[in-house]
């Protein structure tokens, strides 16, 4: 099987409802409000100060950074442990040069900032889709199960995957991720690279 691309408005309504202009940047980076706990799985260390240039990161740190889509896949595996990976929703930002290209389907426009194609399928379907082309490192903007018990967000400007879920789910990610994880307070904007 492979991902099935089609915009199902009912499946994205919960994200669209969280489009408060004052906090939507946090939705793009760590997921929508209303979850018990949040965390960030880092692909690069947090910057020393807001506005630090990503180019200032040491070459060896940059070279050792994990592939962003791999971080998302591994995080989803931890979150879905015991609940299954077969019925997931993916929002794919149409600004990435995916290969294979995103199909010509209706898009969801999140705060007029991110236009995304929606796909449904399993985590295995996502892996198949990303490995069928040359560009496998572009992560989905959002991944969540149909019951919306957790959400993973990866914004184009981030150095981390944002994770939202129950306290137990976040603790599992903190304890078992292969990558550095920082517990996140959704009300506080972390330092970002420029």
Keywords:
alpha+beta, globular, 9-stranded antiparallel sheet, 194 residues
Describe what this molecule looks like in 3D.
- There is one protein chain.
- The chain has 194 residues and is an alpha+beta fold.
- The chain has one domain (4-184).
- Helix content is 27%, strand content 22%.
- It is built from six helices and nine strands.
- Strands 1, 2, 3, 4, 5, 6, 7, 8 and 9 form a nine-stranded antiparallel sheet that branches.
- A hairpin with a 5-residue loop joins strand 6 (142-145) and strand 7.
- The protein is globular.
- The termini are far apart.
- The mean pLDDT is 89.
In DSSP terms, counting alpha (H) and pi (I) runs of 4 or more, how many helices?
6
Domain module tally: 1
Largest sheet: 9 strands, antiparallel
Radius of gyration: 16 Å
The level of helicity is 25-40%
N-to-C CA distance = 39 Å
> What would the average pLDDT be, to the nearest integer?
89
Low-confidence stretches: none
Which word captures the global form?
A: globular
SSE order in H/E notation?
EHHEHHEEEHEEEHE
Class inferred from helices and paired strands: alpha+beta
- Count the beta strands: 9
| Relative strand content | 15-25%
Helix and strand arrangement:
Blueprint: E1 4-5, H1 9-16, H2 24-30, E2 37-42, H3 59-64, H4 68-79, E3 88-93, E4 107-110, E5 114-121, H5 123-131, E6 142-145, E7 151-153, E8 160-165, H6 167-176, E9 181-184
Antiparallel strand pairs: 1-5, 2-8, 2-9, 3-5, 3-6, 4-5, 6-7, 7-8
């Amino acid at each position: 099987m492979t991902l099935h691309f089609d915009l199902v408005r009912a499946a994205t309504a919960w994200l669209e409802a969280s489009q408060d202009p004052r906090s939507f940047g946090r939705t793009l980076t760590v997921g929508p409000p209303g979850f018990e706990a949040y965390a960030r799985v880092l692909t690069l260390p947090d910057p020393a100060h807001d506005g630090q240039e990503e180019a200032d990161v040491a070459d060896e740190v940059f070279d050792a950074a994990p592939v962003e889509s791999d971080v998302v896949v591994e995080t989803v595996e931890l979150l879905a442990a015991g609940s299954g990976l077969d019925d997931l929703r993916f929002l794919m930002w149409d600004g990435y040069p995916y290969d294979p290209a995103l199909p010509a389907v209706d898009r969801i426009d999140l705060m007029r900032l991110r236009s995304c194609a929606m796909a449904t399928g399993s985590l295995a379907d996502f892996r198949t889709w990303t490995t069928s082309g040359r560009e496998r490192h572009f992560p989905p903007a959002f991944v969540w199960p149909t019951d919306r018990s957790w959400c993973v967000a990866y914004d184009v400007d981030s150095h981390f995957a944002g994770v939202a879920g129950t306290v137990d789910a976040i603790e599992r990610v903190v304890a078992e991720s292969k990558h550095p994880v920082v517990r996140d307070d959704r009300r506080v904007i972390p330092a970002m690279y420029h």
